[in-house]
Every structure is written in C-alpha cells, then in structure tokens.
Specification:
This protein has 627 residues and is an alpha+beta fold. It has 17 helices and 27 strands. It folds into two domains: 407 residues, Glycosyltransferase, CATH 1.50.10; 177 residues, Galactose-binding lectin (Jelly Rolls). Helix 4 runs antiparallel to helix 5, helix 4 packs parallel to helix 14 and helix 6 crosses helix 8. The protein is globular.
C-alpha cells in the first residue's frame, strides 16, 4: 500500500461542508432508529448458496457467437469461487467454448469433456480437502461449522451432464447424471448427504456424448451453524481469512488461490493472528491453537529480511525454505505498522507476555530517522534493495498516516510527527477513514486530535453517510441504490484486471468494494441495519459462506469472487467491532489497546487527555508537531 499516498484524484466536492454540520446531522433518519444492544441475540440456522464456479467472462466472446477453443484463450478467472484452481478434462476438450456468462459444450458421439474443480487449495495440494460435514477450516470448532447439503447446476440446452465428487485419490464419493432439456436457463437442484460424502477433493462435471448445452454455474447449498447472525458474519470473514493462511509457511498468501510461499502478504498475516485471537476469545477456535499460531507467525516474521527494522510488504519463499522480499516490492512503513499493531494486540488479548515483549522490542528497533523527508514527513518505505527511499511520503490526512505516526511514536527514537491538518480523506476512499480504528478506540472520541485539530469521529460519520448517499444520488436506478449497498474503497479492479482506488469524492464511480461496509460497521447507529444489508447481499451471492466478494458493479451484474487476504483481514476485524457494538459487550481489541503501554504511548500523540497515564510525559518533549 505504499503507493496509495502518491495517488492523485479529482474530488467532486470536499468534506469540509459536511464537517461544519452540527453533531448528529450527518446521520440519516433511518440510522437514528433507537437501538438497544442485545447481549444474547437468538441463534439461527439458514441455507445459503455458495458458488463453486460461475462462468463470469473476463473477455467477451468475439463476434457475438461462441468463442472457439482453437484460439487457445481462457476467458475465465483463473480460480474458482472457493479460492481454488480448475482445469479441463476429457478427450472432447476441443468441443468446449463459451458465451457471455456460460461455458458451452458440444460433444459429438463417442466424445466427452468438461472441467475439474478443486474443492480445497490447489489441485496439487493433496493434504487439503473439503469436509462436507464441516466445511470451514479445520481449526474452527464443530459448533461453528457449516455443512454442504445440496448442489445446484444452472444450464440450458440438451443432453446429460454428469457431476462427480471425488476424493484426493480420485475415488468417486458421489455422482449424479443431470438431464438438460431446455432452451432457457434452468437450475437443477440435487440434495447431498454430507455424512456420506465426508472429505472430498474434486468436483468434476462432464458433458456426455451427444450433449449440446451451456452451463452458467455450479453452486453448493450450505446449511449455516446454529449461531447468532452477528457471530456468523464474523465467522464467515474469519474463515475467508483462514483459507489464505498456510501453516506450512506460517504466513498468509496474498490470495487464497496462489501457492503457499509464492506471494505472501505480511500485514494480512498480522491480521490473521489478531482474527485468530478474537476467534479464540469467542470460543470458535481453541486457545492452544491460537497461541501456537501466533508464535509460529512471529517466529517466521522475526527471520524475514528487514530494512531499518521495516518488514517487507510481500515475501516469496525460495526452494531452500528461506523467505525473501518479493521482487519488485518494498519494505513498507504502513504495512509494517499494520502487522505489528495486529500482532501486538493479538498477543495482548491472549495475555502472552513473552510474545508481547518480543513484538514490542521489534517495534522499538525500527529506525525512521533516515526516512524523514526535508519537510519532516515520514517516507513510505524503502525499495527492495533496503536502502533507496520510496519517493512518496505519509502526509495525507487519514488512517494510514495515523498508523504510521502511531508506530513511529513507539520506536526508541521517535521523530517529530507531522500530518496534513486538512481533515480531508483522499478521494473519499473508504478504508482510509477506518483503518486506524481497527486497532484504536481513541479515534471514536468527539474531541479534536492533538496533531491536526480534527474531529475524526465526525469526519468518519460524514464520509459514511456520503458513501451511503452516492449511488441513490448519482445512479438512482442502479441495483446498488435499490439494495442500499455502498463501498467506494480500494481493491482489485473490474474482473481483477489491475488495482482500483475509488471514493465518494470522485465522479462516475461504478465499482464497489464491500469490505468498507464492515470496516465502518461499528459507526452505524443501529448495527441491525448492517446485518439486514448482509442478508440482502446473501440473496445476490455477494456474501456467500466463503465470505464477501472482492468487488461488485453498481448493477450487481458482475462481481469478483477473489479471496484476498488483506481485505479479508479488514473484514474480519471490522466484523468483530460490529459484533461488540451489537451486543454492547467488551471489545477485546480496544481493551487490549487500552491496556498496552506502547499503544497508549502512540494514542497519546493524538489524544493526550484521554490517555492520562502518558499525559504528563506528553507535555514536555512531545514527538509531535501540529502542522
């Protein structure tokens, strides 16, 4: 994320006008519905669709007809909706083509062809299988495990599609021949017995000889565990993040569908540690597993190459098992801050003093002196050579800069800390307003901060309302407006082709990143409204059991099912804050933040009066400058 500070954008309008509103006026009438926390919400179980593979095209077929296999082009995403891989099978592979939104098969007599889909990890990951009886990662306790109870095949045409579920050894655990005989797209539902199927590795669909049909999707029907819905939202987000983590490497893959060790994400690894600590406190995973995982992660991270104490943003594992910085990436200040904040609070939550001390010492050793520019701002990091500074600096007002200053305040030699005082979120990009509040309760204070003199709570609330108003105002006939969906943030671009940064201050925005809904969830005056939105999203496959989609277009006609670790981490921690507010319960993250002396030292930079333990020390020799 080191590049975000350098991005430029044109704002439709400034937040300044909203910042002058009287307290409370930034909230809609709907948000003012009286809310009473429910410490014991009712449990519920329901059935929801989980797409295994929906044939969303990256590239539309040429000429309006079927695109021929001879073009040697694969127009589909390179992964399934489960974060796994797939491939083509059968002697009749040459009879496969595609139209928009479908894969088409035309099998002459004597030939068959289709696709194999891995159900857990990559096809070559023989140690990873999907348990139909308990389909979330294995560390999650039985009480919180969903079951796969059905399968749906959506197709049109004429012929027979054979669906097989196989073991890792290619043994058939279940199969069904599904008759296709319709000019229109029809869905064929089939019940599944999860106990009889057990652990599976592959799902194959095969067009039998003589079949001429087009498939739209293969979906599972999942029965959710009997838990309160606020827990289910957190559980689903945690399970999504957990699928990105590899116990073999001790790191989180940047995306669930890439091989472990090929492209690992260090800040997301820290968020997985924090999510696991919270899952343990909620009783979803065993505390022993959580502690072992935290120690495994920190052991790996301690051995990573560092530059001025900074961690790499991304790493790659060599054949001898040594982790190195991923070529072409950087040693990142803000990503180092996210990792250490998350790991420090995770260790504090689990009361592991040795781990708290190890993380604290690593932060203390970070040396930012050579990373200060001539104006007194902290540079965004160092290039992969570990010595060349990145050109950008952390100056923009927002959460990323706040986390940079917070980490700097914890080091043994904190520099003078500066930040733009404007109170303007760059482009109105959602996550920038919320990332600091993943770790600190202090930014919920109505008091202006000591660094910029801005009211963070009011600005965050104003941006949330602006996000909610964007699609009803600029795209009133869109599905997003009708649903009440919002999320102008940053993440993968349309169909995953690059990276996109959106925001409520930009015109003509059509792509939403719904992780912002959870990151800002605890700002809602009535958390039930967020849960109601998630139920509507379930109906449109935007919140399946495998977690939120990465992005979706304004009319909900195309979405990206990629399971990315960093946004999964933001979603997981955001879901926890939403749960705590919904129940009015102790917020373990915030209690840990209040209890840790180093995070209190960092918070005192912004809110010295609220952090009385350090108020006296901050009045003299304070490492901050208001401008």
């Amino acid at each position: 994320m080191a590049w975000l500070g350098a991005l430029l954008g044109l704002g439709l309008c400034s937040l300044a006008a909203q910042e002058t509103q009287q307290p409370g006026t930034e909230l809609s009438n709907a948000a003012r519905v009286e809310f009473h926390p429910d410490p014991n919400p009712p449990t519920e179980t329901h059935r929801v669709h989980q797409p295994v593979h929906q044939y969303i095209n990256v590239q539309d077929p040429m000429g309006g007809g079927r695109q021929k296999i001879e073009r040697k082009m694969n127009p589909f995403l390179a992964y399934t909706h489960l974060g796994t891989d797939f491939g083509f099978i059968g002697a009749g592979e040459g009879g496969l083509g595609w139209e928009v939104g479908t894969v088409c098969v035309s099998m002459p007599p004597g030939y068959w062809g289709g696709m194999w889909l891995s159900l857990a990890g990559l096809g070559d990951d023989r140690d990873l299988t999907l348990d139909f009886r308990a389909c979330y990662p294995a560390q999650i306790k039985a009480k919180y495990q969903p079951q796969i109870v059905g399968l749906e095949l959506a197709a049109r045409g004429k012929g027979v599609i054979k669906v097989e579920i196989k073991s890792v050894h290619q043994e058939i655990l279940w199969f069904r021949n599904i008759e296709i005989d319709s000019h229109d797209l029809r869905t064929s539902p089939v019940p599944l017995n999860p106990v009889e199927i057990g652990n599976a590795k592959f799902l194959n669909w095969v067009a039998e000889p003589g079949t001429d049909a087009c498939l739209n999707s293969v979906n599972f029907v999942v029965k959710t565990p009997d838990v309160p819905y606020d827990e289910y939202v957190f559980l689903s987000s945690y399970a999504k993040l957990a699928r990105c983590y590899s116990p073999k490497t001790g790191l989180a893959r940047d995306r669930a569908h890439v091989p472990a060790g090929s492209f690992d994400n260090i800040p997301a690894t820290g968020l997985y540690a924090l999510g696991t600590a919270l899952a343990a406190q909620l009783g979803m995973v065993d505390k022993v597993y959580a502690l072992e995982t935290l120690h495994r992660i920190q052991e790996v991270v301690e051995k990573l190459p560092k530059a001025s104490g900074l961690l790499p943003h991304f790493t790659h594992q060599l054949d001898d098992g040594v982790n190195v910085i991923l070529p072409g990436t950087e040693f990142s200040v803000v990503d180092t801050s996210i990792y250490y904040h998350a790991m420090l609070l995770a260790a504090q939550i689990l009361e592991d003093k040795l781990l708290v001390n190890a993380v604290t010492q690593a932060v203390h050793r970070i040396a930012l002196g050579d990373l200060m520019d001539s104006a007194g701002y902290i540079r965004q990091g160092l290039r992969e050579d570990g010595t060349t500074p990145l050109p950008g600096v952390w100056r923009d007002w927002g959460g990323e800069t706040a986390l940079t200053l917070a980490m700097a305040a914890m080091t043994d030699q904190p520099p003078q800390l500066r930040m733009d005082p404007s109170g303007k979120i760059h482009d109105g990009t959602g996550f920038i307003a919320e990332v600091q509040s993943m770790f600190y309760p202090d930014f919920d204070s109505p008091r202006p901060d000591a660094v910029t003199g801005q009211n963070w709570l009011r600005i965050r609330q104003a941006l949330l309302q602006k996000q909610k108003d964007y699609f009803p105002m600029f795209w009133p006939g869109s599905k997003a407006a009708e649903m009440g969906l919002y999320g102008l943030s940053a993440g993968e671009a349309y169909h995953g082709a690059g990276y996109a940064v959106g925001g409520a201050n930009l015109p003509n925005q059509t792509l939403l990143h719904p992780h912002y809904v959870l990151m800002a969830g605890a700002l809602a005056a009535n958390p039930n409204e967020v849960h109601d939105l998630f139920r509507r999203m379930e109906d449109d496959h935007l919140f399946p059991p495998w977690g939120l989609v990465e992005n979706v277009t304004k009319d909900l006609n195309t979405y990206l099912p990629m399971q990315g670790a960093l946004n999964a981490g933001f979603e997981c921690i955001g879901a926890y804050h939403l749960l705590a507010k919904h129940r009015g319960s102790k917020n373990e993250v915030y209690e840990a933040s209040r209890a840790n002396s180093d995070t209190r030292k960092a918070a005192a930079v912004f809110y010295p009066l609220e952090t009385s333990a350090f108020a006296a020390g901050s009045s003299e020799g304070s490492p901050l400058s208001p401008r």
